[in-house]
């Protein structure tokens, strides 16, 4: 009887240890809650900025849209300005990474940066619920420091590829996609994006 009791106790202890290890492993595999909350807050701020304007990006509105308390937002971002600064940094980093990623998938070196720039800008038009460029513009228009930071980051990225993209035709193609993007944002042009994209990309091919 005593042996059986000890066996049951030993088995129970072993089962508890296995259960604890399982819970610990699951905890490591689950996304960290603070990271999820921070991401939700940045996404909510971006959506409000694009849809309603920067003046409506308030601490209360962002917290409510993200499904957290006002105190929860302030735990991650001490003020509205800190939130906007973090959003701008997040957007510009993602924008640069997408351009770089699109460049890596290309085989022709001439115009490699310009094609990636055009494709990334066009994706902001054709893919629903993206609009990172629109959010960047909303933020940059209201803040001279953000405008300078965006210009500096993009100029640095472009100059790194002067050997492949320092051509007036490529510059014109980039200017054109900027103009088309703006026309689409304000609804002043009805040309199909895919037709425009193909024409602009053709300008970046070496002939």
UniProtKB/TrEMBL annotation:
<dbReference type="InterPro" id="IPR001647">
    <property type="entry name" value="HTH_TetR"/>
</dbReference>
<dbReference type="InterPro" id="IPR036271">
    <property type="entry name" value="Tet_transcr_reg_TetR-rel_C_sf"/>
</dbReference>
<dbReference type="InterPro" id="IPR041479">
    <property type="entry name" value="TetR_CgmR_C"/>
</dbReference>
<dbReference type="Pfam" id="PF17937">
    <property type="entry name" value="TetR_C_28"/>
</dbReference>
<dbReference type="Pfam" id="PF00440">
    <property type="entry name" value="TetR_N"/>
</dbReference>
<feature type="domain" description="HTH tetR-type">
    <location>
        <begin position="35"/>
        <end position="95"/>
    </location>
</feature>
<protein>
    <submittedName>
        <fullName>TetR family transcriptional regulator</fullName>
    </submittedName>
</protein>
<keyword id="KW-0238">DNA-binding</keyword>
<dbReference type="InterPro" id="IPR050109">
    <property type="entry name" value="HTH-type_TetR-like_transc_reg"/>
</dbReference>
<dbReference type="InterPro" id="IPR009057">
    <property type="entry name" value="Homeodomain-like_sf"/>
</dbReference>
<dbReference type="GO" id="GO:0003700">
    <property type="term" value="F:DNA-binding transcription factor activity"/>
</dbReference>
<dbReference type="GO" id="GO:0000976">
    <property type="term" value="F:transcription cis-regulatory region binding"/>
</dbReference>
<feature type="DNA-binding region" description="H-T-H motif">
    <location>
        <begin position="58"/>
        <end position="77"/>
    </location>
</feature>
């Amino acid at each position: 009887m005593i042996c059986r009791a000890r066996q049951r106790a030993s088995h129970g202890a072993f089962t508890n240890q296995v259960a604890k290890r399982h819970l610990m492993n699951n905890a490591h595999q689950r996304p960290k809650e603070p990271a999820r909350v921070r991401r939700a807050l940045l996404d909510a701020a971006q959506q409000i900025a694009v849809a309603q304007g920067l003046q409506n990006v308030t601490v209360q509105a962002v917290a409510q849209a993200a499904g957290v308390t006002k105190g929860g937002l302030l735990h991650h971002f001490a003020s509205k300005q800190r939130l906007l600064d973090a959003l701008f940094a997040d957007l510009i980093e993602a924008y640069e990474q997408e351009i770089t990623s699109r460049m890596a998938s290309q085989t022709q070196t001439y115009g490699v940066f310009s094609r990636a720039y055009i494709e990334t800008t066009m994706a902001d038009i054709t893919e629903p619920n993206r609009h990172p460029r629109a959010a960047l513009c909303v933020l940059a228009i209201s803040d001279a420091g953000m405008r300078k930071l965006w210009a500096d980051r993009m100029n640095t990225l472009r100059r790194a590829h002067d050997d492949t993209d320092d051509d007036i035709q490529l510059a014109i193609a980039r200017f054109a996609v900027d103009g088309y993007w703006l026309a689409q944002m304000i609804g002043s042009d009805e040309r199909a994006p895919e037709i425009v994209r193909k024409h602009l990309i053709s300008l970046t091919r070496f002939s």
